[in-house]
Amino acid sequence: MHAWLMYDSDGAVRNRDYIDYHYDLGRELGIGFDMHIIDELTIDRLVDYIADEHPDVAIVRTICPKLNRILESEGVVTHNSYRLSYITNDKKRCIGFIMDNTDVPCVPCKETMEPGDVIKPLSGHGGIGVRRATESGSVPDGHVCQPFIDGPHEDVRVYVIGKRIVAAVKRTAPKGEFRANASLGGMTSRYELRERDRDYVEQIINVIHDGLIGIDFIIDSDGRFVFSEIEDVVGARMLYKTHPEIDILREYLVWITENY
User: Fold this and answer.
1) Beta strands in 86-186 (DSSP E)
2) Which string of b and e fits 100-117 if b means at least 16 CB within 10 Å?
3) pLDDT tens-place string over residues 180-189
4) What is the strand order of the sheet 143-146 is part of?
5) Whole-prediction pTM
6) Average pLDDT, rounded, for the chain
7) What is the CB-side half-sphere exposure of residue 122 using CA atoms within 13 A?
């Protein structure tokens, strides 16, 4: 199998060891990887490269739904798909989709903000740019507004490959912080899904499953899951830390060879 691995330049530097591991596993599993940095590609150059190199699969490790769409239009099997990338990389669109297609409790989106609400960039990730509103008014362009969910300041990320739940990780916000992202100092630990949790995850998987994703839930004051967002280009560092027995990249690449 001939596969493209696609990163933006910053991501390629930040994830050098993970990229090398793709190559190592690829040699073992019969996948030949070529690396492409999307910052260096125009649409015409991308189409030319596809025609010259004939990749079977592209693994897109950067947030760029337009890229996923072009790859698919040129006949390249793309993970994750354009449909998933399009839905999940707009938080308002993603929440609306889950509310329309499942019975999973969601943090609703608001048309106007009030003090204490949570403001997030529509396509942000890693907790970057997330803040509490300090005044009433219109939601800033390019952002989504949601009510603050009172609780223990914990959330859970559920890792999924295809339609299979792999594992779950709980993140606990540091003192004085409401964001539990591991990249912002949140503590991580293993989490065992309860029957009700698993039902919510399976409802989501049934309507939007594709490749490797992370499904994030906030834990409310009653200990219940409330859907927050889906990470399309999901990181794996905290999963390797909390579940050393799971090699999620190996499982993902095996899944690709079986399902591409």
Assistant:
1) 112-113, 118-121, 131-132, 137-138, 143-146, 154-161, 164-172
2) eebebbbbebbeebeeeb
3) 565 556 689 9
4) 131-132, 118-121, 143-146
5) 0.91
6) 91
7) 13
